[in-house]
Amino acid sequence: PELAPRTCAAAGGGGSGTDDGLRGEDLFSKLVPLNVLEDASVYTASRDDMLRELGEAVETLDGTVEAELSGMDLPHALHAVEREQQLPDGIVQSVGRVHASGSGAALAQLVNSLPQLASDVQGKSMAIEAILEVEEGQDQQLQQAHGDRWACVRSTQLTADARLELAQLREQLSQAEAA
Q1: What is each CA distance from 120 to 53, 83, 154, in whole angstroms?
Q2: Name one GO cellular component term (predicted).
Q3: What is the pTM of this model?
């Protein structure tokens, strides 16, 4: 028997009577309802914004700490003290400039503000975790409501990736707090 080629009704072809389910509404819209796509888009945007803010806060904190520590020239200064030699003139002059400009107090203020910054970052990470938990719950509901059709979206992988990134940022925060 010869098979007759079938045409897709959505593309304007005639098709057979069995193609009635493909006519009219877009096939993708039947598989993934618009409200699901909208909800996923809103969630993804808010999650990305919070992760971006958390990452920027950690990067800012890292940059500030690194700049301050680099400005102190600590490895060379500590090495000189351990050898019980006189400090190099450059370090003595730098320390004099720091004390004269009041930057010692600014550095102390910066160091004293680190726990508050860490607390703020920790709060944001907890908010992100709460959003991820809500997303997982919504994903389970959508999986139950839409069955295999929901597997097309793969939001569980996005949530797992976000949790991994959040865990890495928390580890960096813990290391910064311990330092």
Answers
A1: 11, 41, 31
A2: endosome
A3: 0.37
